[in-house]
Amino acid sequence: MIMRPAAVLTVALLFGCSSTPHPYEADMIDVTLPAPAEQVRTAVTQVLTEGGYDVEWKDEQTVHTGYREETRGPWDWLYLWRFGTIKSRVEGMVTPSTDQSTRVRLHVLTQGKDGIFMSWKDQQSALPQSADNQLRLIKNALNIL
Questions:
Q1: Which residues contact 47 (CB under 8 A, 6 or more apart)?
Q2: 36 phi-psi bin (left φ>0, alpha ψ -120 to 50, beta other)
Q3: pTM reported for the whole predicted model
Q4: Is 2 domain-assigned?
């Protein structure tokens, strides 16, 4: 009789602890800013460059970045090996709505891993790299409250 509850408990623990990873919500913003498109493009470039991204404009509207450099120093390999790291990049569009307003869409893609021998997995953006924070910095650069 003792074997049956133990077996049920073991099966419950195995199935309860094994599950698929929870998908994270896309870290995106889609807003219209009261500023001309050229000023917004300049502000987006400035904010992303200051944030550590290599900014590349594919055309007048589409921006892509490389992965942001998260850590720099001679002991990076040891830090990354033990504690893991996060990498993020940004994709976006800046399209003029009218002469004095511009639509901005930014998508921050973030991946992380727990150590050097782990694989990269999607994860939530860290607050300083989040799309909401990028929008706040862009508004500050444009002097929009």
A1: 134, 137, 138, 141
A2: beta
A3: 0.76
A4: no
Q: Mind listing the pLDDT tens digit for each residue in 32-61?
A: 999 999 999 999 999 999 998 999 999 999
pLDDT beyond 90 at 142: yes
C-alpha 90/C-alpha 43 separation (Å) is 15
> Tell me, what CATH number does 94's domain have?
3.30.530.50
Q: Which of 138, 145, 143, 135 is nearest to 29 (CA)?
A: 135
Question: Per the structure block, which two tokens stand in for 32?
Answer: 């219209």
The answer to whether residue 1 sits within a structural domain is no
Within-domain flag for 78: yes
Structure-token pair, residue 9:
């408990």
